[in-house]
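User: Hey, my collaborator sent me this sequence without any context and asked if I could get a structure. I don't really work with proteins. Can you help?
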Amino acid sequence: MNKLMIPIASLLLTTPAAASAQSLEGLWANPKKSVVVKVERCGPALCGAISWASDRNKEKGVELGTRVLSDLKPQGDGTYRGSALEPKRNIRGLATVHQLGPNMMVVKGCALLGLFCREQRWTRVAS
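Assistant: No problem. I've predicted the 3D structure and written it out in structure-token form, which is a compact way to encode the shape of the chain:
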């Protein structure tokens, strides 16, 4: 029984580190799959720009190429901090991105000194 528990315990202990070691770089979809953001290196940090948007979002003023995540820098444990833009309302604020695994991240943007915050789970899109 102990011989079986050791491999299982070591697997459980290494899983979070492996997940946080994954790169944020790539394509990510919002929960409604109405916007896809391409996250890539921008100098010493990461940034994300809209690479695809639904027709409905385009009608609401969402433009391809708009940078919605800027200056994301690693804070450790799969967390990044930088700035965010909500393009429909043109609201800028602080962003915290936490990668939950290789294909899931939580994006939280806060404006007005942290009084107004919004959080979404984004999923990786195959390129």
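In plain terms: Residues 2-20 form the longest helix (19 residues). You can pass these tokens on to your collaborator as they are.
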